[in-house]
Sequence to fold (417 residues):
Amino acid sequence: MLLPYVGVDFPGAVAMISVHTSPFEQAGRANAGGLNVYVRRLAEELVRRGIAVDVFTRRTEADADPVIEIAPRLRLLSVPGSFASAGKEELAGHVEEFAAALLEHPGRRDGYAVVHGHYWLAGLVGMRLRDPLGAPLVQSMHTLAAVKDAHRPPDAPAESPLRYAGEREVVAAADRLIANTEDEAAALRRWYDADRDRLAVVPPGADLVRFTPGPRDAARAAVGVDRDRPLVVFAGRLEPGKGLGVLLDALALLSGRAPLLAVIGDYTRGSAGRDLLEIPLTAAAARGDVILVPPLPQPRLAAWFRAADAVCVPSYSESFGLVALEAQACGTPVIATDVGGLRTAVADGVSGVLVSGHEPRAWAQAVLRVTGDRVERARLAAAAPAQAARFRWSHSADAVVDVYRSVRSSTWAAACP
Fold:
């Protein structure tokens, strides 16, 4: 049975599409990362504004409920098909099947005001839904093949020609493109010839309810770490592009001065670089230099951030870097690569330190600067919450609604000259 529109101050519901990963999976596990947090938090904020949101993702478990009500007006709809167990790289070959199955989904509404695709695979699906659903396509790319290739780790494979072609197709077809930062908008124009008039820059937000400052000693007790030992935290998927190998090499240079490293996350499914990380991580854990922690729900992750002297984000590329914002919201300085959206998320020399490149010695010096100098750390920590507070999900949602309204007005005008 098709359901009617639900909404208060917006003329219809929003269909969000995330093909390769469910936004309600635990971030840091398998293919779940910042995109998952972004979609979930944006959807929650839209719902608070009276806008109904349906999130469509692939059904990976045969017995999964086709429709799950996450909250009033917020539903997760799983789409069945032969793509259930396909690897992320194989999903481009299932775009037509996914779109057709979505249109046949018994829980979908009889119309949507906007289709919002997240990641290029979802954009390819969204292109095929625009006419049947009579809704404009708003697209968030989240990551770009050209940016990843420009900054990829040594010996890492290049992104596939199929992805490049798919991204170009989506960028050309979308009615509106949402970029996280001016850096991402510039990349869309430079490498994909994106139309400036169809681009909107809307930074993500920090969850300032779950991620808040708190006593460091109490947090140390909660996570079970000696309060007197310097501690740095890495949180994210364990893959070469996140730069964990560089951080391990940097800490090895510090020898007896190295802080304890807590690594919170899981290996990306099918990652070719797993062996490069797993061997040194296992050895470091055996020596007591590293604590390996599985992906955590946000309240427990926040406790680790509060316990840390610094949170490290040594990524080779980041469209934004939500971990950096969340850590700063907890009053913890961030050491991050001077690249992409991290330049926006971290105020260099104010709430954290930006490191140029991935030379281990430079990273070792940055870690010592923060963890080895209590006065410097305290200065950066004091400014961190204010930096995070510049980015709120409420502001992000308001800006996204403006994009939705704008694209609906322009497409309506084009349809009715």
Observations:
- The radius of gyration is 21 Å.
- The longest helix spans residues 393-415.
- The mean pLDDT is 91.
- DSSP finds 15 helices and 14 strands in the chain.
